[in-house]
Each structure stands twice: as C-alpha cells, then as structure tokens.
Design goal:
The protein is an alpha/beta fold. It has a single domain, classed as 2-Layer Sandwich (Nucleotidyltransferase, domain 5). The protein is 38% helix and 14% strand. Strands 3-2-1-4-5 form a five-stranded mixed beta sheet. Helix 3 crosses helix 6 (153-176). The radius of gyration is 18 Å and the shape is globular.
Length: 222
C-alpha cells in the first residue's frame, strides 16, 4: 500500500481533501484514530477513535477536514454535528502529565490511542492511525497513514473531536491558572506562556520532562 498517491485497485485518489476511499479499501468495521497535544508544555495528550456511519450528510462531507485547517468555531460546530450522527461510534483516551513524564511523549501518545480504541462501544477489524507508526501490540490490524487527517474522513473526524475535547480541558485548567493563557494557547509554548513560566514557575499540569519546563523547576511551583 502506498499512502500519498494511493493505489488500492480503485484508482488514484487526490489527497487534497479527506474521503472514504481508504475506509472502503479495507474490509470490515474501520476506525480512524488521531491524537492532539504532543507538543504542548502542559496538559494531557488526547486521542480519539471514530467509526463513521456508511453515509454522511453532504454538509458534513464538505466540512470535515484536518482540524489544523479549521477555525476553533468550525471545529466546535463540526464536532457537535458529528457527535449527533446516528450510528457514529467514538472512543476517547488520554495520557496525563505524570504518564507523559514517566514514559515519554511518544509512548504516552500510543497509550492514549490504545485507550481511545478500547473505549469504543464496538470492536473494529481495522484501524487507520494518523502518522508513520503503529503502537506496539495494537489489538487489531492497523495502517499508519502519514498526514491521514487530510486523506481519511475517519481520521479527520477523530482529529476534530480530539482537538475540541482537549481545548475544553485546557480552558478548564486556565480557570485554575489564568496567568499561563491556556485558554488561548492550549498549553503550547507561546511567548506569553514562556514569560509566565519564567515569572511563576511550573504548575502540576506542566510536563516536567520537557526542556522549557525543566529549566524553571527551581522556581516557585504550585
């Protein structure tokens, strides 16, 4: 299988927008899995696993895309419409800051993906996983799809749902620690976030294993 110019006996697929071609090329129930939150300095890493119904409203087909290409308002709207679809199955999984620091961010991402898969209310026969690696010991057949959120509708839907949920978590944490601007930066190392780290130190929600955080651990933390 080649992921980029895709050949599955169905012709070449233009990967400019996500579609169902990859799902249709697989047999049985297929889920898409994507994660969000590998790069931030604070908060959990989150994954979603999504099994879409066989048919989608045209308005959703043209709206679903890589979450990074959508505005926050578009993501929230599409997420709500996805979650209201009859027949959709969604599993959510996360790895918290302590797990990220203990096993590293890559392994924590794989853990979140496995937890999302395990949280599905059904058992897919195939998983399409965004990225170039498959978590070790994954419980079903799996295909790593580079830039999969621009190729597979299931992965793109997972990317949107995961992003909306993680943004909501970070907005809740921002109410506890407003000085870091997590409601706007979602925990990423923006200049405002870095300045707050230097001034106030690290919180219990910061990833101590990440270099920008470890440099300020001698400062006041809470």
């Amino acid at each position: 299988m080649e992921i980029g110019g895709l050949f599955f006996g169905i012709g070449r697929y233009d990967a400019g927008m996500p579609g169902f071609e990859l799902e249709k090329a697989c047999s049985g129930c297929v889920c898409g899995i994507d994660e969000v939150g590998r790069g931030p300095l604070a908060g959990p890493v989150l994954a979603a696993a999504v099994v879409l119904p066989q048919s989608l409203p045209e308005s959703l087909l043209v709206a679903i895309d890589d979450s990074k290409k959508l505005s926050a308002a578009q993501r929230v709207d599409i997420c709500a419409r996805l979650m209201a679809l009859p027949g959709i199955a969604v599993g959510m999984g996360e790895a918290d800051v302590a797990e990220i620091d203990r096993i590293n961010i890559l392994q924590a991402t794989f853990l979140a993906m496995r937890r999302a898969f395990d949280a599905l209310p059904l058992v897919p026969q195939m998983a399409l996983i965004d990225g170039n690696r498959i978590p070790k010991g994954f419980p079903c057949k799996a295909l790593a799809v580079v830039k999969g959120d621009g190729i597979s509708l299931s992965i793109a839907a997972a990317s949107i749902i995961a992003k909306v949920r993680r943004d909501a978590i970070m907005a809740e944490l921002a109410m506890e620690h407003p000085e870091y601007g997590w409601g706007a930066n979602a925990g990423y190392g923006t200049p405002a976030h870095m300045a707050a780290l230097e001034q106030f130190g690290a919180t219990r929600h910061h990833r101590r294993s990440f270099a920008p955080v470890s440099r300020v651990q001698g400062k006041l933390s809470f």
